[in-house]
Design a protein that fits this description.
The complex is a heterodimer of chains A (110) and B (117). Chain A contains no helices and 11 strands. Chain A is mostly beta strands and 110 residues long. In chain A, strands 2, 4, 5, 9, 10 and 11 form a 6-stranded mixed β-sheet that branches. The chains are: A mainly beta (110), B mainly beta (117). At the A-B interface, strand 5, strand 9 and strand 10 of A face strand 4, strand 5, strand 9 and strand 10 of B.
Chain lengths: 110, 117
């Protein structure tokens, strides 16, 4: 079957680091995306990995291991505005529809 | 550059009624996707247009759902007749044509929250 798993919720303190893991089992793979979604708003693109390794974008980094079906999103120097849901999504081969995990709600506390 | 826009932002209808959702993609984006998130579940794919053609309809739940993209610009998603289980948030996303220079990232609209009573 097809499955994308990520933790439901994580809590961290302002200024700290949080790592959100995502494991996937899908019939096809053509890249993994991370999106941030604040309540009632559009999911916003954060990062993309298609090859193994680490992609760094400012305070956010994302890692991919295709052989392990595993990715993580690392959020550094957490700010209050980082409180949001983080969505892991695998892009299918072919025409590129996204399959999403249920999202990880990150709560940043003072 | 304007992002993906969706209308309405909220819709409350009674079971058996018809509702039409609209999506305006980012200008120049050939790919347009519809997704849905029902309460407590993950966002799920409904269908994909390339310009005006339906490329993948594998996620459409049943024939009460009809999507169109006449002229290859905006798209509508009609639900007729609506059932209680159709309640959820309907997202639209668009992406440019994939080339060697882009990742074909999908950019999402804010969604339409549909409530069927």
């Amino acid at each position: 079957g097809q499955n994308i798993d990520q933790p439901t919720e994580m809590t961290a303190t302002e200024g700290a680091i949080v790592q959100i893991n995502c494991t996937y089992q899908t019939s096809g793979f053509n890249g993994l995306f991370w999106y941030q979604q604040h309540a009632g708003e559009a999911p916003t693109f954060l990062s993309y990995n298609v090859l193994d390794g680490l992609e760094e974008k400012g305070r956010f980094s994302s890692f991919l291991s295709r052989s392990k079906g595993y990715s993580y999103l690392l959020l550094k120097e957490l700010q209050m505005k980082d409180s949001a849901s983080y969505l892991c999504a695998v892009r299918d081969i072919g025409w590129g529809k996204l399959q999403f995990g249920a999202g990880t709600q990150v709560v940043v506390t003072p | 550059e304007a992002g993906v826009t969706q209308f309405p932002s909220h819709s409350v209808i009674e079971k058996g009624q018809t509702v039409t959702l609209r999506c305006d993609p980012i200008s120049g984006h050939d790919n347009l996707y519809w997704y849905r998130r029902v309460m407590g579940k993950e966002i799920k794919f409904l269908l994909h247009f390339v310009k005006e053609s339906k490329q993948d309809e594998s996620g459409m739940p049943n024939n009460r759902f009809l999507a169109e993209r006449t002229g290859g610009t905006y798209s509508t998603l009609k639900v007729q007749p609506a059932e209680l289980e159709d309640s959820g948030v309907y997202f639209c996303a668009s992406s440019p044509t994939m080339t060697s220079g882009n990742t074909d990232t999908q950019y999402f609209g804010p969604g339409t929250r549909l409530t069927v009573l």
